[in-house]
Specification:
single chain, binds magnesium ion, Rossmann fold, binds adenosine-5'-triphosphate, globular, 7 helices, four-stranded antiparallel β-sheet, about 35% helix, alpha/beta, six-stranded mixed β-sheet
């Protein structure tokens, strides 16, 4: 098996005044290519902190994070920006689409930043938006789409450039239960079709039930 992510003794301590919070406490985690894994745990257990560090959005206090053999904790800020752009897809709870861009443009934009050829970008954008069931909404802006449709655009955007893995922090938190179910089915299909690795956090029991592996955090520790 091919290890995509490996953390060793990963620690994050937040210090605010006299208060020190150990948000992530010596986490040793290995994620293989093609996993569909949920991180669960009570509010404040460290899910977001862990995902942000693995995604290179936040720096650890201690330990290592290896992505496809590269220790990302040693990268400079500039190298990290480039690394994220080329290797990691993000899906956020609030969708985070760009309001003035259409669904097509929201998805193609990342590949443009990567400097890919226009023909390739156009074909891939149409393919992935069709895979998420939005072939007929290419020209719609986020405000013209439902929450579930916006999150499908966000998943398409994260998948478009075939990243090594996708990180999703509570991707269904703003969706109703039927839409949650549909989004999860769609993510699973993409996971199987393209063998892309998904790592997502959730509070929702139905979302946990769809995961192939569940990692539980309590007070920053894996249990
Ligand atoms: N920027 C910060 N400064 C100080 N403390 C923080 C910061 N971010 C998070 N924390 C603390 O770190 C701990 C873990 O927070 P985190 O957001 O990772 O939890 P979570 O599991 O994602 O919670 P939720 O389910 O509510 O999203 C909490 O005690 C939180 O208060
Ligand atoms: Mg969180």
């Amino acid at each position: 098996m091919n290890k995509v992510i490996e953390t060793s003794d990963l620690v994050k301590i937040y210090s605010t005044g006299a208060l020190e919070v150990c948000a992530v406490d010596h986490v040793n985690l290995t994620i293989e290519q093609g996993e569909f894994t949920a991180i669960v745990g009570p509010s404040g257990s460290g899910k977001t902190t862990l995902l942000n560090m693995i995604g290179g959005l936040d720096k650890p206090t201690g330990g290592q994070i290896t992505v496809d053999g590269v220790d990302i904790t040693t990268l400079t800020q500039k190298q990290l920006v480039d690394f994220r752009l080329r290797n990691i897809g993000f899906v956020f709870q609030q969708y985070n689409l760009i309001p003035v861009l259409t669904a097509f443009e929201n998805v193609s934009f990342i590949m443009e930043l990567q400097g890919r050829m226009k023909k390739e970008i156009d074909a891939r954008t149409k393919e992935i938006l069709s895979d998420v069931g939005l072939a007929d909404r290419l020209a719609s802006r986020p405000a013209q789409l439902s929450g579930g449709q916006q999150q499908r655009v966000a998943v398409a955007r994260a998948m478009a450039s075939r990243p090594k893995f996708i990180i999703a922090d509570e991707p269904t938190a703003n969706l109703d239960s039927k839409t949650t179910e549909k989004l999860l089915e769609m993510m699973l299909e993409l996971n199987q079709k393209e063998n892309v690795t998904f790592l997502f956090s959730t509070h929702d029991q139905r979302v946990m039930n769809k995961a192939r592996r569940v990692i539980t955090l309590e007070d920053g520790r894996m249990v």
